[in-house]
Amino acid sequence: MFFFLISCFSFSFILVSKSLSLRPYPHPPMKSEWILLSPWLWKGLSSFLVSWFSKGGLAVRLPIVLPLKKMSLSLGSKLAKVEEEKISLSLLDLPDLTLECILERLSPAGLCNMAGVCTSFRDRCTSDHLWEKHMKRKWGRLIGVAAYREWQLHLASKKRATLLNQSKQKGFFSSLYSFWPFSLIRPKLENDTEPTSSLPVDSIMAWYVSLESGKFWFPAQVYNRENGHVGFMLSCYDAQLSYDSQTDTFRARYSPHGRRTIEENISWDRLRAPPVDTPSHVLHFSDCLQDLKPGDHIEIQWRRNKEFPYGWWYGIVGHLESCDRNENNCLCNYSDTVILEFNQYPTGSRWRQTMINRKDHREVGNQADGFYGGIRKLYKEDEISMWKSLWPTQAME
User: Can you give the pLDDT at residue 395?
Assistant: First the structure.
């Protein structure tokens, strides 16, 4: 079937070449000529090969035999003769642009299949520019500044260990084999007689594999921790996350303080990258206080006591008690006192409302009501929509 399709590509090219010829060829078209005269052929060929490899075809190590039609053409005359000639062509003999087009369309699993073919494909298929798009597509929403910094620390630690023991250089690539589909590389590599180099630990592919395998724990934030426990509704807490590829969910490790320290089966829609680079035990610097006005959506740090980490809680800016809530008469944005409302709690609840000082805001609170910290104003509609989608279906006590 494979050779039949390739032959069809070649025959179609011959018919097009005939219709475009203005003078007879003194000799049969050379290999370089039919490559240049038929860019559409490579586009079709690349699409076919991508489909072939995605189905697990690993026969790329065998030479591809392309039967080509050699023709003698003359103006105003019909096709005189067609002579078939077999030209042995390896996949590595394809033009660089065509080969890159094929590799760019492969999935992560497909790239790993190709990387197991030979050293040349291994070098190509582990290059950063091929893996960058896969990284952004799947992990871009969760990987923030904190996660990148954690990865760099992980690399530094791994490099120090490598310097102490050179035999550990194979450690990362060996661990890659235990995770499907990267384990598909192993049979090819083990049968190679030539020595091979390990996967660079600082490559984007290495980072992608570490995330997919769940062996790299990275910092992110979890909405409504503990599966929406009433005590954490409309909040977002820092956690260390590990991915479970079998269930397409995450495990979370929270700070040792609190009700629980581990949560499992967390879906993607309950996660986000930290919007600000502020550690969970540090008071966030509030640079939006002068802009706050009634109706603004905000997140504010809150913690039960000073030993606990902060979580980010959703609220809105309310009106002062003296305000009649008429937009034309409202002067709340000129007052030093700012009212923050948490309408997920019923009227009369001690969690329903709090006040801060616009000009001299610091951590405020007590052991009974907890402590309120820094504030960030929400400007993006997608952030506001996310919080609204998490709104509890019933009144909270």
Answer: 65
Query: pLDDT, tens digit, for every residue of 155-164?
Result: 888 777 767 7
Q: How far is C-alpha 149 from the geometric centre of its chain's CA atoms?
A: 16
Cis peptide before 181 (omega within 30 of 0): yes
Among candidate residues 90, 113, 91, the one with its CA nearest the CA of residue 187: 113
**CA proximity to 171, closest of 201, 131, 209, 148:** 201
Q: Average pLDDT in the 136-163 region? A: 86
Across-strand partners of 64?
Answer: 89
Query: Residue 247: what are its φ and ψ, rounded to 5°?
Result: -110, -5
pLDDT at 46: 55
